[in-house]
């Protein structure tokens, strides 16, 4: 399988990790949509958030606790978290990931 996020989680593509835990890593989005835009990615491959919830629910728990920790580290007053599911909703990488966005106003 040619999955870019599997390559990043395995360290095959040099990437600065802002968080690494047992099941999850976080790194900056290549094309940021906010001053802080991180991706929180499970180390195991699941196509989307629902599949991840079924297959590795502990990774979902770690994703949200890591999001809170990162928001504190990046001094975010508030933050937005987004899982896109399906191409119609804007998903372009089919390895589950949470977008963590902050540092600007959101409507
Ligand atoms: P999606 O559109 O699937 O919800 O989000 C995929 C995100 O991954 C996009 O925001 C895109 O900018 C980001 N992205 C795609 N390829 C790479 C990459 O190789 N490195 C990093 N850091 N981000 C990537
Ligand atoms: Zn993958």
Topology:
Layout: H1 4-9, E1 19-20, E2 24-28, E3 36-42, H2 49-55, H3 57-73, E4 80-82, E5 98-102
Residues 3, 5-6, 45, 95 line the site of zinc ion.
Number of strands: 5
- Give the CA-based shape: globular
* Helical fraction: 25-40%
**Ligand kinds:** guanosine-5'-monophosphate, zinc ion
Q: Residue ranges: pLDDT <50 for 5 or more in a row? A: none
**Terminus-to-terminus distance:** 38 Å
Strand order of the largest sheet: 1-2-3-5-4
Question: Radius of gyration, rounded?
Answer: 13 Å
Average of pLDDT: 97
The profile of the biggest β sheet is: 5 strands, antiparallel
Q: What structural category do the secondary elements indicate?
A: alpha+beta
Order of helices and strands: HEEEHHEE
Q: What is the count of DSSP helices, taking H or I runs of 4+ residues?
A: 3
Q: Which percent band covers the strand fraction?
A: 15-25%
Task: Walk me through the structure.
The protein has 107 residues and is an alpha+beta fold. Helix content is 28%, strand content 21%. It has helices spanning 4-9, 49-55, 57-73; strands spanning 19-20, 24-28, 36-42, 80-82, 98-102. A five-stranded antiparallel β-sheet has the order 1-2-3-5-4, with helices on one face. β2 and β3 (36-42) form a beta hairpin. α2 crosses α3 (57-73). The N and C termini lie far apart (38 Å). The mean pLDDT is 97. Residues 3, 5-6, 45, 95 line the site of zinc ion. Guanosine-5'-monophosphate binds at residues 4, 27-31, 39, 84, 90-93.
